[in-house]
Amino acid sequence: MAEENKPAPAAGGSRANTKKELPEHFKAYKHVWVAVEIEHGQVHSVSFELLGEGRKLADKRGVELAAVVMGDDRASLDAAAVACFEYGADCVYLAQDPALKHYRNETSTKVLTDIVNTYQPEILLLGATNLGRDLAGSVATTLQTGLTADCTELAIDDEGSLAATRPTFGGSLLCTIFTLNYRPQMATVRPRVLAMPDREEGRTGRIVEFDPKLVEDDVITKVLDFIADRDTDKANLPYADIVVAGGLGLGSAENFQLVKELAEVLGAEYGGSRPLVQKGWITSDRQIGQTGKTIRPKLYIAAGISGAIQHRVGVEGADVIVAINTDPNAPIFEFAHLGIVADAVTLLPALTDAFAARLRVNRLAS
Amino acid sequence: MHIVVCIKQVPDSAQIRVHPVTNTIMRQGVPTIINPYDLFALEEALRLKDRFGATVTVLTMGPPTAAESLRKALTFGADRAVLLTDRYFAGSDTLATSYALSMALLKVAEEFGKPEIIFTGKQTIDGDTAQVGPGIAKRLDYNQLTYIARIVETDTDAGTIKVERRAEGGLQVLESKLPVLITMLEASNEMRRGSIENALIAARAEVVTWNAAAVGIEDLTKCGLRGSPTIVKKVFAPTARTDKAEIVEVDGKVDAKAAALVEAIFAKAPAVEQDLLEHAAHHYV
Amino acid sequence: MGEFNKPFDAIVVGAGPSGNACAYMMAKEGLNVLQIERGEYAGSKNVQGAILYADALEKIIPEFRDEAPLERHVIEQRMWMMDDKSHSGMHYRSDDFNEEKPNRYTILRAQFDKWFSSKVKEAGALVLYETTVTELVKDLSGKVIGVRTDRQGSPIMANVVILAEGVNGLVGQRSGLRNEVSPDSVALAVKEMHFLPRETIEARFNLSGNEGVVIEAMGTITKGMTGTGFLYTNEESISVGIGCIVSDFAETNVTPNELLEAFKNHPSIKPLLADSECKEYAAHLIPEGGYKAIPQLTGAGWIVVGDAGQFVNAVHREGSNLAMTTGRIAAETVVSLTRKREEMTAANLAEYEKRLGQSFVMKDLKKYKGIPELLHKNKGNFFGTYPKLISSAMQTWFRVDGIDKISKEKAIFRNFRETRTLWGMMGDAFKMVRAWR
After folding, report:
1. Is C246 a residue whose pLDDT tops 60?
2. Residue from B9, B16, B22, B28 to probe the interface with C (highest C Cβ count within 10 Å)
3. Which of A37, A67, B151, C123 could form a disulfide with A84 if both were Cys (CB 3.0 to 4.6 A apart)?
4. Residue C330: inside a domain, yes or no?
5. B272 touching chain A per CB within 8 A
6. What DSSP letter does each residue of C311-377 carry, written as one string?
7. Model confidence over B238-261: pLDDT tens digits?
8. What's the domain of life for this entry (chain A) (predicted)?
């Protein structure tokens, strides 16, 4: 029932929350915050994108923009703070503790909630990554405030409230959601949805140290290991720069080899649409789409895939989508950037050769 | 061991239509399905049932028709179905939803035993928020394990669980203590097909149906629209992308077509060409 | 597993109109009924719109109008004869159809079947979805005693198995109870749903409230093949489709999709669909062989109902009412035998055929038994020559161009005679009349 906007039953009082009547104790909440995502010392680019957007929101509200950085290693936290300033933050809340070495829900929820309760921001933004969504839900529930997940657009309305727009029903509709009477107003935004801001070298701000007061022995969940994707030969579709995928248009399991050959030349990951998994042509870890992997490559080549909505939602984040299909009316041409009406079975080998030749020629020329 | 799987009945996104004038979802005639992500959670629960003889309860909150999805979950082999339904829940956002569900879970614990594991899907395909699972975990004080790609081992005696969790750039191997709330990653397993006996049991089963009062919700202001801090103020159709695919049209042989397509791709994605050249240089030298 | 081996009084294979009618009637009478449907739910394999004839359903669920998901009641019927650019035809619209208990409705099968299925469950039948019956289980004497499914586990036993599996149901064929349907006695229809706001539909078809229109069309739209096109108004959508005999498709190499595209783009149809959003495309088979194609209907432990028994009146485009009626009559037969504690032998079940013979189902099918063959054998004339002639006659007649009416009449008749000999035309007319009577 979540996200359904049906009228509430008439019985039992009015719908007071549809009008802005901010309770007194929330009026002190001020400033726009971004909870920065750091893993293995690296700041996720979505955090900078959020700082860029947060800057605009803060300026519109006439308040400060702050970043929250949490981790165990001082050097990388300082580096992150510098980057945050250069991407627009006025202030950085810095929490350093050995128990924050790896992201864990328990520790990060506690620290972020404590900082929020202490310094009281009006807006708190996180990336809609696995980490951000894991953390945001816990923090919002602890704070008993509103959270709008997976936004595509953020703005400030005339009353000064955060207007968070997000797709719903698999992208069929957009809705604009407000948290009028609770603070902070929380939102998450997916990576690459917002533009990367310009970095202003040498820009600086103030650092506020926050002592997390964590005790490792009290933390229940332990991180035993981290298996980096680069160390495994498993399909790494979500993070691949180039993905080549095939669909039923390939006609047979043998023809799927043509997809693999192109992927090989491009150093790409390969995958397929759901029917291929059902037919057993590929394993389920290579399924791309709504119930498979969501991919965000720089280049996505879809061969013989019609482009049903279940597939579409899994690939829409790609920078460039190339469609190869015999049917000029296939839905994939509606959202692909580049298309060719051709039989994938004959075109793919030629395309593989053309890429190989092109890359060889250019290498010689350069 | 008692496992509860929270599922949601959702409209099949492939069949959704938007009324062109009022911009509302035209639900009429749109078939409903079990949220596909929830099936990964259910299958994982059934695997634990196979291994440890656990009892699997499926729970959903929704309109009375959501009983269909519960019954379907039983055909896969779940043991018990619970429907939480009340008009006071209408319009719930993620906070209000996790409140109602956590109350129902407390009632499940009281009636059928405390669940050691609560499963949910990664997110739903209609709301897409991925926030209800974490909300439940927080409210019930369960250890939260989201985006789990694999359950490595479960030690019921020691009360520990070891999992692989999808994180940026790799898998976190985590060990936690029961009780836990797990949100299962997509494509982590494949749903089984229930036997004819499962199907017959499911067809005969009574769905346990509770309303707000039955799960001990006294404060209705925590439910539905009134219990939701977020307010949907505007719903609108996305502006259709006007730029459809640029079609590469080349007469002649397939080689010519392929060459033209490569040119067009590199024109659209110059960064990719750069990367590939670097890759190629590395590769061929 | 003991309880699973207790035989059911009856198993119904399929949850379309005939299977639902049958399972509902038996369960309501207290029989222990299991219904098995291969779709995810009843109607899931059937996304298109259809016409519901109230009478047949009224005999099963008298109060259906209060609950069933009905789209619009039909107040206007248009019969169109089409050539490539025109249509001429007959319209009948009457406020009499705005009666308290209307006679015909447009429905969306997915919703209607689902509702009907819920009634079946309410009546007390067990319903398994997503389960395909793979074969019939027979005892040594050859009597059908149960079914096997595609799910793991033991076979399920029953005193009688009612096959309501549709025109192309494989269980009966595989078990040798009936032959594979012949391509010249079955039509392939393709349908689409075009969504439009209800206000637009009402303005476009001159309707108010829940009034609806049905258009049936024949002529060159089927490119010389035996078939018809149709268009129905639903509440917020329009069902449009076209169907032809399967063997004709094979002969002409025209694909059903091409045919539908051409039909939708016909200048008489296109404006009716303008600005709509097409969401669903479905193809399905309709038995069109009529009386002569009806297979053996009963045997030891089994009964065939609905489309599986070719119960479709192609001339009046009636199907679901025949299906429901055969389902009801089969149920009555089984209930009466069960009450009398009689065995489900071939001889006892033959009662079903006797009862059918007394119903409108068999009487109507018998009446038109010659028509399917007649149309099919003379398809060139009925679906090509005549529509063109009529269109050109109409145009000659209505075009005001300074030519006197007597000359026009002569030109029209000359055109008719030259295209088709007088004897030929008279012969076709005579054959048509004979087949009709």
Report:
1. yes
2. B28
3. A67
4. yes
5. yes
6. --BTTTTB-HHHHHHHHHHHHHHHHHHHHTT----HHHHHHHHHHHHHSHHHHHHHHTTTHHHHHHH
7. 776 667 788 988 888 899 999 999
8. Bacteria
Q: Just give the CATH number of A230-365.
A: 3.40.50.1220
Which residue segment(s) compose the domain that C264 sits in?
184-287
For residue B104, what are its two tokens? 């129902």
The alpha helices in A120-254, defined as continuous H runs, are: 130-143
Shortest CA gap B56–chain A (Å):
23
- The domain that holds C194 is classified in CATH as 3.30.9.90
Output helix, strand, coil percentages for chain C, rounded to the nearest 5.
45, 25, 30
**Position of tokens 């802005």?**
A20
Partner residues linked to C187 by β-bridges: C245, C286
Residues 205-224 in A contacting B (C-alpha not used; CB under 8 Å): 220-224
Q: Are C306 and C352 in contact (CB under 8 A)?
A: no
What is the Rg, in whole angstroms, of the alpha carbon atoms belonging to chain B?
23
Tell me the residues of chain A between 67 and 96 that have a Cβ less than 8 Å away from chain B. Answer: none
Q: What CATH code would you report for B2-222? A: 3.40.50.620
- Nearest CA among A309, A310, A336, A311 for reference residue A324: A336
CA distance C238 to C277: 10
Residue ranges, comma separated, of all CATH 3.40.50.620 domains in chain B are 2-222
| Residues 237-296 of chain C whose Cβ lies under 8 A from any Cβ of chain B | 237, 277, 279-280
DSSP H/E element including A206: strand A206-210
Instruction: State the pLDDT at residue A5.
Output: 39
Instruction: Choose the closest CB to B277 out of A133, A339, A362.
Output: A362
B23 and chain C in contact, CB less than 8 A: no
**Whether A148 and B98 lie within 8 Å, measured CB to CB:** no
| Nearest residue in B to C127, CA atom | B203
Q: pTM (2 decimals)?
A: 0.83
> What are the pLDDT digits (tens) for C311-327?
887 767 778 888 999 99
Q: What ipTM describes this predicted complex?
A: 0.86
